[in-house]
Amino acid sequence: MKRKSDGFARGSDPRGGVLSASAAEALGARVFGYVTGDPGRLLRFMESAGLTPDALRQAADGPDLIAGLLDHVVADEELLVACASALEVPPERITQAWRRLGPPDPGEFGA
């Protein structure tokens, strides 16, 4: 089974740089704007995450919402490519934000 970090350092940029946490959060906010800007995209995300409108409002202030949203976008290649195109960023950049903001891989926990 391939883990999300196979072959990549967590949050690394293929050009050799590292996507900072603040840059990942800023990109995550832009992805959030893209997904919530269309009722159909928003509904698909809410259904996949099991969120009600009230739960979405409550989660809006927490970092887990952006991480979950990025997980949703990265899991759907068509959505990922469309989002990247709309935001004028390479899809890999969104994937880097997902790696940076998502939970650590099991191998990254202490010994």
From TrEMBL:
Annotated Pfam families: DUF3572
Q: Which InterPro entries is this protein grouped with?
A: DUF3572 (IPR021955)
The identity of this protein, by name, is DUF3572 family protein
- Organism classification: Bacteria, Pseudomonadati, Pseudomonadota, Alphaproteobacteria, Hyphomicrobiales
